[in-house]
Amino acid sequence: MERTGTSIAEAFDHVWGQFVHRLDGLTDDEYLWEPVEGCWSIHPDEHGVWRIDGASGNSPAPEPAPITTIAWRIGHIAGMAIGGFADRLFGDGTLTAQDLTFPGLAAEVPSYCEANYRPWREGIETIDEERWWSPIGPKWGPYATANTVDLALHVLHELSHHGAEVGLLRDLYARRAG
What we know:
2 strands; 6 helices; Four Helix Bundle (Hemerythrin (Met), subunit A); mainly alpha; single chain; globular
């Protein structure tokens, strides 16, 4: 792996390690806890498949954006950002939000996270220095002229800020009243 790839991979491994460490001891009640009314979360559909709120893509997110549960944030980080972007960048790019299922139980979260992180992390190792700095192309729509470094930094930002929000929600859950 070339220098850019090594630096980015090391940054991901560091932030990912912090994120998954904060998930230790997560309970089902905490995972699905709604700190305020109207939270976006995950819910089983009519077939019992867990789906994430707001992922239909049929309408823009409401303003202001809803507060989201730990389950939603984990689904967004691992499934949509890391797993979805890995499919677009390293796979066939056919994965849609409707194809994704989300863990309904806290005990399923570690394997779900690992299954989504592994293709991203392994894919990073395949990128040569030229590809890091080349445009990501038309399948990325309005971001077609961005390069792979830009994309990786966006995903790292998603992991960092939503991971921090998960940590904060865990702290608030532990100290909630009543």
